[in-house]
Write a structure and sequence with these properties.
The structure is a single chain. With about 150 residues, the protein is mostly beta strands. About 10% of the residues lie in helices and about 40% in strands. The strands form two sheets. The protein has a five-stranded mixed beta barrel with strand order 1-3-6-8-7. The chain has a two-stranded antiparallel sheet with strand order 4-5. A hairpin with a 5-residue loop joins strand 4 and strand 5. The radius of gyration is 22 Å and the shape is globular.
Length: about 150
């Protein structure tokens, strides 16, 4: 079976996160996000170039949890998709804008230190009786013929 993949985005929360609700009453998380960009130089070093800013939204439980856990400046990674929508500028001009809709959202482990607090399971019998998770058998790499001259 093929690995399921989706678009992802990483960066930092550039604005104070906002929690609002849609017309249907669903929670909606919004934050302006920043992405730092770098250019590799001929000597192997990197030079930081312009930071770009984008809109990130999440809905329902993801929105509520994101609002409770994220603050301006936090580094994040998100999985989801990019969506275009029609809006107007402050001057009233129609424009097409783009936002990243996060279906999954978390802190960037490579750039954030934190502790995880796990809740205890409430029904030990259910845990004991649950079928064990089994991983697919790991295949050993196929041996290759030695290269000529070795």
């Amino acid at each position: 079976m093929a690995i399921h993949t989706q678009q992802s985005v990483s960066g930092f929360i550039a604005s104070e996160p906002q929690l609002t609700h849609t017309e249907r009453g669903d929670a909606r998380f919004y934050a302006k996000i920043g992405q730092e960009h770098y250019r590799k130089e001929p000597d192997g070093s990197f030079t930081q170039t312009e930071t770009t800013f984008h809109d990130l939204v999440a809905f329902k439980k993801t929105a509520e949890r994101a609002h409770a856990r994220f603050a301006k400046g936090d580094k994040f990674v998100a999985e989801g998709y990019t969506r275009e929508y029609d809006t107007t500028t402050p001057e009233g001009e129609p424009v097409t804008a783009e936002e990243f809709v996060a279906k999954k959202l978390g802190h960037d482990l490579a750039r954030t230190n934190y502790e995880v607090t796990r809740t205890r399971r409430t029904d030990p019998a259910a845990e004991r009786d649950a079928p064990a998770f089994e991983t697919a058998a790991r295949r050993e790499p196929t041996p290759t013929a030695p290269a000529l001259g070795h």
